[in-house]
Each structure stands twice: as structure tokens, then as C-alpha cells.
Amino acid sequence: MPSNIPESDISRIIEMAWEDRTPFDAIEAQFNLTHDEVVEVMRKNLKRTSFKVWRERVRGKKTKHIGLRTFKVGRHQSYDQPKHRKR
Description:
The chain is mainly alpha-helical.
């Protein structure tokens, strides 16, 4: 793991890693960290029990791994959100 990651970036990496719909590929694109490096950041910066909970939560989760996704990458639109806006 790169040791020169600024604290603000570590916070954002942790936040993105906890988000269900943010894939590891997005973290890699933004911070140039592989999946294993993200796991290492989480291991070093979370309490042991929090890390275990996170690891179990993301292991095999389709939304965290682009290769497992069955949907196109994009934003979700709520069913009650207007489909077209008039200007």
C-alpha cells in the first residue's frame, strides 16, 4: 500500500469502499489503488471488528465488482422522479 496517501484521500477511499454502489474499479480510477490495496487501507484504518463487518459485506457483492454486475453502470433513477424535465 502506498504510504503517502493524504488523510483526506484515506477518508474518501473508506467512504467509497463502504458505499454499496461504488465499485472497486471507481476507487482504482480515482486513487490508483488496486482492490488489494483498498483492502489494506481498510484493514489499517478501521477497527478490527469494523473491518470484518465491511469485508463480509463486500465479499462477492455484485455492485462492488464490475465483473459481477448484471446492470449497466449508471445512476439509479427513482420510480417517482420525473422522467423528463420541462424547461
